[in-house]
Amino acid sequence: MKLSEIMTTKVVTVGPDDEFDVALGLFERYPFRHLPVVHMGALVSLLSRRDLSLATGWRDVKTRRLRGPKDPHLIRHIMRDRVVSLTPDHEVDAAASMMVGKRVGAIPILEANLLVGLVTGSDILAAMRKRNPRALWGQTPEAGAKVSEYMQHEPDALESGSDLSEAAGICRRKALSHLPVTEGGVLVGLLSEHELRFELEEHEGPADQILSEVMVRDLITIGPDEDLSIAADSMINNKVSGLPVVQGEGLVGFLTDQDIMQHFTAKFRVPGF
Q1: What distance in Å separates the CA atoms of residue 35 and residue 24, rounded to the nearest whole number?
Q2: Distance set, CA 235 to CA 39, 84, 107, 143 (Å)
Q3: E strands of the chain, at which residues?
Q4: How confident is the model at residue 227 (pLDDT cuts 50, 70, 90)?
Q5: What is the per-residue pLDDT across 200-216, written as a single tens digit (0 to 9) for each?
Q6: What span, in angstroms and rounded, lies between the C-alpha atoms of 47 and 83?
Q7: pLDDT tens-digit profile of 154-195?
Q8: Can you tell me the distance from the alpha carbon of 260 to that of 232, in angstroms, rounded to the nearest whole number?
């Protein structure tokens, strides 16, 4: 399957001389996690939600502006120098291998050095799931690969009574996109970096807000003994990039779409990526 069959062609972009607030506004308006940085039609970088969150230090607009002109405020100040890319004629396998090997969540698609599309981890996961029968997801037809083999064990989590400043510190320091919230080891909620940044941006002095006031309680989870194919279906159907792994009511792990792609690329690795 070619990337031209699955890539998004209507790509929202920003320019290198746009201010952070332009990108922040786009990330708030749309559900995507990456913004290609384009100058005169040519790709110059790729900006992620995480890049922007780390660059702003989880500070609100007012606070950043008070720091003065020396504080980074243009996208060119934080954009990456090197960006991996592929062409529309590359296969899905190549994109999956590149995402896992380079640890990236999206790949710009170029044709004649111009941006023509974008492929995300969710796009790759959906294509892999559609193309491959259930048996190919398992190590053998009789025993499928299990969530427990690929999940992150003992994921970072905070108690529901913790405050937002502590959550921001962990997400910033460890570059987390999701932070499970627990009560005595029992999973009770989930906080994404999007929700965390929104709370810190919209409310002044939010340090005394506790996670139970802002966390998402309606959770989609997976068990450690479930097949990866079940986890993939859940991510695709619910349009999420990660799932808390629970046993009983206790949090035992966290599984991302890249964890699932790791299994896929180990079976169908493309040399050079």
Answers
A1: 10
A2: 34, 25, 19, 21
A3: 34-39, 42-48, 106-111, 114-120, 152-153, 158-159, 178-183, 186-192, 242-247, 250-256
A4: confident
A5: 665 554 456 788 888 88
A6: 10
A7: 899 999 988 888 888 888 777 787 899 999 889 999 988 767
A8: 7
